[in-house]
């Protein structure tokens, strides 16, 4: 089951989620959304950055350079979506 459908079911059934469960669900949703976005952009780029029949070598080199730069951004989006967020510093220690 996808993270989106799990979140939707949790919201519509009225069952409260524990904080750890909600954090895991949001992380999975972020990961799925990032992957879907990166895949869609990659599909779009692969169609627009191909060599055309009328392209000169310089135009093709420019397209290939632009494709490489765009793919670096797509891979950065994938890495950011898959990264786990660090836990915040816990400042709730007892001072007594």
TrEMBL record:
The lineage's top-level taxon is: Bacteria
Indicate what this protein is called per its UniProt record: Uncharacterized protein
Which organism is this entry from?
Streptomyces tagetis
């Amino acid at each position: 089951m996808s993270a989106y459908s799990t979140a939707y079911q949790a919201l519509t059934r009225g069952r409260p989620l524990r904080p750890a469960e909600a954090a895991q669900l949001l992380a999975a949703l972020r990961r799925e959304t990032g992957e879907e976005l990166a895949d869609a952009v990659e599909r779009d780029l692969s169609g627009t950055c191909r060599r055309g029949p009328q392209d000169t070598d310089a135009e093709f080199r420019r397209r290939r350079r632009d494709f490489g730069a765009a793919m670096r951004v797509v891979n950065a989006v994938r890495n950011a979506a898959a990264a786990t967020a660090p836990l915040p510093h816990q400042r709730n220690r007892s001072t007594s």
